Amino acid sequence: MAVKVRAASLLDVGPVEQLHREAEARVIQLPAPVRLWTLVSQTLTALFPLGQESLILVAEDAGRVVGFIQASDRSGSGSLSVASKIHTLQVLNLCIAPGRQDEEGVAAALIDMLAGQAGERGVQRLVVRVPLDEPLLPTFRMRGFRQFATETVLLAEHVEAQGNGRPVGGR
């Protein structure tokens, strides 16, 4: 059956949250740096924002949500109306239902629709932050994404209290 991609609605909150929870469950088993990136980029607080500066699309197969993608203007500089001044959107979430044989196809359909929707709104660039071993990296690259930066992400797994816990000069 063909996957259909459409704009998310409030009726999709439940299925999208379920996909997100399933993705988080898989992330717990990943090494710390990958886990950190995923948790930062896939926070539920970023889902279904009240503002218009976010695009959320869902993929459905036989009436069931099987994936979603979310991109947002992280600068807070405007809204995604047709006359938008936003030039760059960051992909914050891309989740595909576990066990899908066509994971790359679903992801590709979501990315393509996101690019089309963003372009219609005057957006010129999409940015996505992914680990170097992300399985969907080739899917992004085949859609024109290229690596332009490498970053180091630091994580303290266990933080111990030291001193009185107040910074020098704190009140």
Describe what you observe in this structure.
It is a single chain. The chain is an alpha+beta fold. The chain contains four helices and five strands; from the N terminus they run βααβββαβα. The protein has helices spanning 13-27, 32-41, 103-120, 137-141; strands at residues 4-7, 54-61, 64-72, 88-96, 125-128. It has a five-stranded mixed sheet. A hairpin with a 2-residue loop joins β2 (54-61) and β3. The longest helix is centred in the middle third of the chain and has 18 residues, at 103-120. It is globular, with a radius of gyration of 18 Å.
Task: Give the secondary structure arrangement, pairings included.
Elements: E1 4-7, H1 13-27, H2 32-41, E2 54-61, E3 64-72, E4 88-96, H3 103-120, E5 125-128, H4 137-141
Parallel strand pairs: 4-5
Antiparallel strand pairs: 1-2, 2-3, 3-4
Give short descriptive properties of this protein:
171 residues, alpha+beta, 5-stranded mixed β-sheet, 4 helices, 5 strands, globular
User: Multimeric state of these chains?
Assistant: single chain
**Strand arrangement in the largest pleated sheet:** 1-2-3-4-5
Largest sheet: 5 strands, mixed
Which percent range describes the beta-strand content?
Answer: 15-25%
Please estimate the helix content.
25-40%
Shape: globular
Q: What distance lies between the first and last C-alpha atoms, to the nearest angstrom? A: 62 Å
Counting helices, strands and paired strands, the structural category is: alpha+beta
Low-confidence stretches: 33-46
Number of strands: 5
Task: List SSEs in N-to-C order.
Answer: EHHEEEHEH
Q: What is Rg?
A: 18 Å
Count of alpha/pi helices? 4
Integer average pLDDT: 78
